[in-house]
Specification:
Layout (H helix, E strand, L loop, with lengths): L5 H28 L13 H11 L4 E2 L2 E2 L6 H4 L4
Antiparallel strand pairs: 1-2
Length: about 80
């Protein structure tokens, strides 16, 4: 594929960045003029505990203190033929 001309490069940048610009503008408009709050991840537990839970959910079984036992999944409870 031959290199793009400067005009084609500018057009490509405009086409790729326009949806990002529109989406960001819409979110900022809702916050500034409609009073919508910023979305945040709830932080009810300590960060260490949240990290440990997320890692164990992924099935790696590694917690803050080393290797932990894998929690049984609902699929493990079903009778297998």
């Amino acid at each position: 594929m031959p290199p793009l001309t400067p005009e084609a490069q500018r057009l490509r940048i405009i086409i790729l960045s326009f949806p990002l610009f529109v989406g960001t503008s819409y979110v900022l408009y809702k916050r500034a003029f409609k009073g919508e709050e910023q979305r945040q991840i709830p932080r009810t537990l300590s960060d260490d505990k949240v990290t440990t839970e997320r890692i164990s959910i992924l099935g790696r079984g590694v917690g803050m203190g080393g290797i932990e036992e894998r929690q049984p999944r609902p699929s493990d409870w079903q009778d297998k033929p």
